[in-house]
Write a structure and sequence with these properties.
This protein has 176 residues and is α+β, with helices and mostly antiparallel strands. The chain has one domain. 27% of the residues lie in helices and 44% in strands. It is built from 5 helices and 7 strands; from the N terminus they run ααβαβααβββββ. Strands 2-1-7-6-5-4-3 form a 7-stranded antiparallel β-sheet. A hairpin with a 3-residue loop joins β4 and β5.
Length: 176
């Protein structure tokens, strides 16, 4: 059951708060590699304001691929938690997120943040045959986000799982 916990956690990490939109006209765009320049600007746009955040996760669809009904019933459909983003973490922007995701064996396939919209695709793996691909789309501001996440996972034993959820994050003050 430990693998189920990664879904809302990773989704919430992806979107606690993002910064200014990227304009894709900077010096990196003239480097000759437009795709790399675009990705670099999207990553630069992802800025998290330091402070205390509350993230709320609402699972809207859950298919556990044939697992007993009791397993699905035991999973909370709504949860929330609070966490702090330090000034040091905020200064690292997307790099801090990538480092945190790597601890869970996760990585981005793509990440785009522009004009208040964020889109990402990331994958996670774990021992025992767990593999997940997650696609997210939503809106952001410096102090929060509202994102829809769809995740499909392969579970040990050949089972699969499909989850659709909304993740809302809001800066609620300073860390104490």
């Amino acid at each position: 059951m430990r693998h189920f916990a990664i879904l809302p956690l990773v989704a919430a990490l992806v979107l606690p708060g993002c910064g200014q939109s990227s304009d894709k006209t900077g010096a990196a765009a003239t480097s000759g590699n437009a795709a790399a320049a675009s990705a670099a600007l999207d990553e630069a746009a992802f800025k998290v304001a330091p402070g205390k955040y509350r993230s709320s996760v609402n699972i809207t669809k859950l298919d556990l691929g044939g697992l007993p009904v009791q397993v699905a019933a035991a999973m909370p459909r709504q949860s929330s938690y609070e966490y702090c983003v330090t000034p040091e973490q905020a200064a690292k922007g997307i790099e801090a997120l990538k480092q945190q995701m790597a601890k869970g064996s996760c990585q981005f396939e793509s990440f785009k943040a522009s004009g208040g919209t964020v889109d990402s695709v990331f994958t996670c793996t774990a021992d025992g045959g767990f593999a997940m691909r997650s696609v997210s789309h939503g809106t952001y501001s410096e102090s929060g986000s509202d994102v829809s996440v769809t995740a499909d996972a392969k579970l040990p034993g050949g089972r699969s799982m499909h989850v659709e959820q909304s993740v809302k994050a809001q800066r609620i003050g300073d860390c104490t």
